[in-house]
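Exam revision sheet. Question 4 asks you to relate a sequence to its structure. Input first:
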Amino acid sequence: MRIIDSGIIAEAVENLIGRAQYDTPADLDMSLRNALEKERSPLGKQVISQILENRGIAAGERLAICQDTGICVVFMDVGQDVHISGTYLEDAIQEAVRRAYAGLRKSVVRDPLFDRTNTRDNTPAVIHSRIVPGAGIKLLVICKGFGSENMSRIKLLPPSAGVKGVKDFIVETARLAGANACPPMILGVCVGGTFEQAAMEAKRMTAVGLDYENPDEHYRDLEEACLAEINRLGIGPAGFGGSTTALSIRICARPTHIASLPVAVNVCCHASRHAETEI
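Answer key, structure tokens:
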């Protein structure tokens, strides 16, 4: 049994939020630079150049990459041999979010419908946890802006829809997102599972490294086919036209019921603010 104080977890979450808001993951930086070389539109090239310049300023001056600093989503994989001591863990994480967002825009409202009053500290964060083997804790923090989140979709297709139905839904989601998702976008996709599982797994997939190679050749081929078709839509960087509408599509599959074919697409903007660590 390993004992981990909740304060250590909270400190890690606070640090991850800072990394997500200010620093560009190396794989994303490389993907943007590759897109700059391949982009055929002069205006599209200009937009990607400005995105890269903005990222350099954010990292150098410790300024937020985007004015929409998002809602904080924390994924925790907790080893079953871990005992968490100290302050109640959720309270500790929420306090970490308050501290991390002290100098960032606060975007969370108290009630979605009847009392849209800003909570003024960007809490509550959304926390997902699952038990895994081992004696450690893996943390993934995603700071999700809602220009792209609002464009995300889920649909429970009939099994007869097949590969074509799944592909058409993914491409249609990108087309409908258009400039609203601040392209070039990253798409996390889950095929299968249940309604809520598909949505959660799709969000996780937006944080998978852009250098990741899908181990299943069928889904790898589907990723490549969807990406090619989306980049032929002509939406381009910032919606100004061009050949770089999406940087990446990452698809996972989960077992599902015989009567359904769920597909969830979580749309992520080019900022892709996320960071992870292990304790």
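Marking note for examiners. The first helix runs from residue 6 to 22.
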